[in-house]
Design a protein that fits this description.
InterPro entries: N2O_reductase_NosL. This is Nitrous oxide reductase accessory protein NosL. Keywords: Plasmid. With 188 residues, this protein is α+β, with helices and mostly antiparallel strands. It has two domains: 32 residues; 128 residues, no CATH class. It is built from four helices and ten strands. The strands form three sheets. It has a four-stranded antiparallel β-sheet with strand order 2-1-3-6, covered by helices on one side. A three-stranded mixed β-sheet has the order 4-5-8, with no helix packed on it. It is globular.
Length: 188
């Protein structure tokens, strides 16, 4: 009888241990910040976010904003995507993270085909307005970029993204530059 009672306690402990382990694992999965299986969706960068390369407040600058989500986690300093006040700085940051083994799961840039942008005189150059609401962004890999135009972004020369090729070509005709696709930007 003593042996049977000990065996019953052992079985009950195993069952309780198994239930506890399963509950802990389930809870950890629910609380995890790793949402890498979810599709990346752009967020608004209008609440005082600063560029992860230069530290300047994004909405205080000219030009396109951008954000990059990574499969293996978040930028070094916070939850969510990395933030940028220029496409040029986004590309610089993304190249560094790729060399560290990080994998992008979503990259978004201001889409000048979908916003009413302004061209503004300032600092002896022509600048394009910034737009950083969530709806102002498009998938960076599907945009066309005007490079080397007379219009400047936050850090001077920048790549100006348009989701419609015709819009990019018209902009380049009016303001100089060439139209390029995403894959060609990484070769600069």
């Amino acid at each position: 009888m003593t042996q049977r009672l000990a065996s019953s306690r052992t079985d009950r402990r195993r069952v309780l241990f198994g239930i506890g382990t399963l509950a802990t694992a389930s809870l950890a999965g629910c609380l995890s910040d790793d949402d890498s299986d979810d599709p990346a969706e752009p967020i608004a960068l209008t609440d005082g976010q600063t560029c992860d390369v230069c530290g300047m407040m994004i909405t205080d600058q000219y030009g396109p904003a951008g954000q990059v989500f990574y499969e293996d986690g978040n930028p070094d300093v916070r939850d969510g995507p990395a933030w940028f006040d220029s496409v040029a700085e986004l590309l610089e940051y993304a190249a560094r993270q790729t060399s560290r083994g990080w994998t992008e799961r979503g990259t978004f840039v201001t889409d000048y085909s979908s916003v009413e942008y302004e061209l503004l005189e300032g600092d002896e150059a022509l600048h394009i307005s910034t737009h950083a609401a969530a709806d102002d962004f498009a998938d960076a890999t599907e945009c066309y970029y005007v490079a080397d135009s007379e219009v400047q972004g936050a850090m001077g020369d920048d790549y100006l993204p348009f989701s419609a090729r015709d819009d990019a070509e018209t902009f380049a005709d009016d303001h100089g530059g060439t139209v390029r696709e995403w894959d060609s930007l990484a070769t600069d």
